[in-house]
Structure formats: structure tokens, C-alpha cells
Specification:
- The protein has about 200 residues and is an alpha+beta fold.
- It folds into 2 domains: about 35 residues; about 150 residues.
- About 20% of the residues lie in helices and about 25% in strands.
- It has a 6-stranded antiparallel β-sheet, with no helix packed on it. Strands 7-4-9 form a 3-stranded antiparallel β-sheet, with no helix packed on it.
């Protein structure tokens, strides 16, 4: 009798153990079927644009380029010129409007990418002014190379934002005694003007 009771206890213990083990398996299997996710998609980076326009004397719009080599091969309109000058010539003036069309805050400089050529340059004066009521950016007695010179917006700010602009005037005048200078006839002067924009 005692032996039978002992066997029944062992059998009951095994059944209970099997039931607990089965519950554990069902429990873990159930947890494996439940899943949760979060996904942060579209993480990306891009650089804003740096660009400007150059319009000389109300002419065609010239768009900027990020290649200095391309800029040299596709020049914009002439800002200031004078042909067949006479002894009574008193000077020539031209203007160019620079507008920041990019999305980055930037700064501008004006310079000559190469030294002016021609012996007439020594007999000419150059002044560059803006509409920002500042003193001239460039004042030369004898047209020479212009090192990079910072330019401001029309409101006088050195930091250019999108749509900021300014009109720059180039005044070329003859030196004193130009009309009686016997070394001037037949001579010429040529120079290029480069506007450079850089991110601030």
C-alpha cells in the first residue's frame, strides 16, 4: 500500500513537472511572437549652395561658377571700356550688380586675377565705389593689380545673405597731363575683374 502511494506521488510529481515545463515552453514561445520596432529613417546630409549673379551695365545676367578655370574661359560682360580715346577724354564709368543667390552666408572680394597689361595703364586712374556710402574700395593712380579686397552689401554689411546685393561702379579717368602726353597715342590698357564669393 505504501509502495503504491509512493509510486502515485512520483507519477504526480512527474505530471506536474511536465505541466510546468510545458507552460514554460508555451510562455517563451508566446514572448518570441511578440515584437516591437522603431525606425528612424532618412538620416541624410547635404551642403547648401554658394552662388551669385553678375550683371554689368544692366546687360545680361552672368551666373557664377565654382571653377575658376571655367570662369576665366566664360567671362561676363565688360564693366568699363573706352576706345579711340582723344586728348579731350575725361573718363569712363561702368557698373556691375553683384547679388548673392545662394543659401549660404558668404563674403565677397574683388580682385584682378592677373596684372593689367599695356603701357597705357600707367596713365589711367581707377576708382571702385559701392552704393553703401563707404569710402572707395579701390583708388589707384595708374591702373595696377588689385589684391583681393573685401566688399560689403548695399547696407554696409560684410556678411552677405541670400538676395543681398550691391552695385559697384568702376571709374577710369586720365592722369593729369594726359592730353599732352606724347607717349600715350596708340597705347592700350587691358585688365580683368574677378568677383570671388566664399562661405562665411
Amino acid at each position: 500500500m505504501e509502495n503504491r502511494k509512493s509510486k502515485r506521488s512520483v507519477r504526480l510529481a512527474l505530471v506536474l513537472g511536465a505541466a510546468v515545463a510545458g507552460t514554460a515552453l508555451v510562455g517563451w514561445g508566446g514572448l518570441a511572437a511578440w515584437q516591437a520596432y522603431t525606425q528612424n529613417s532618412g538620416n541624410a546630409f547635404s551642403v547648401s549652395t554658394l552662388s551669385h549673379t553678375n550683371v554689368a551695365n544692366g546687360g545680361l545676367t552672368c551666373d557664377s561658377t565654382t571653377s575658376s578655370a571655367l570662369a576665366a574661359s566664360t567671362p561676363c560682360s565688360v564693366i568699363v571700356t573706352g576706345s579711340s580715346l582723344t586728348s579731350t577724354w575725361t573718363g569712363s564709368t561702368g557698373s556691375v550688380v553683384i547679388t548673392d543667390t545662394g543659401a549660404l552666408a558668404s563674403s565677397f572680394t574683388v580682385s584682378t586675377p592677373a596684372a593689367p597689361t599695356g603701357t597705357l595703364c600707367a596713365a589711367l586712374n581707377l576708382t571702385i565705389t559701392g552704393t553703401d556710402s563707404l569710402t572707395p574700395y579701390v583708388t589707384q593712380t595708374g591702373i595696377a593689380a588689385i589684391s583681393p579686397t573685401p566688399l560689403n552689401t548695399s547696407t554696409g554689411s560684410s556678411s552677405w545673405a541670400q538676395n543681398n546685393s550691391n552695385t559697384f561702379s568702376f571709374h577710369v579717368t586720365p592722369e593729369t597731363g594726359f592730353g599732352t602726353d606724347n607717349s600715350v597715342p596708340g597705347e592700350s590698357c587691358n585688365f580683368n575683374v574677378l568677383f570671388t564669393q566664399a562661405s562665411a
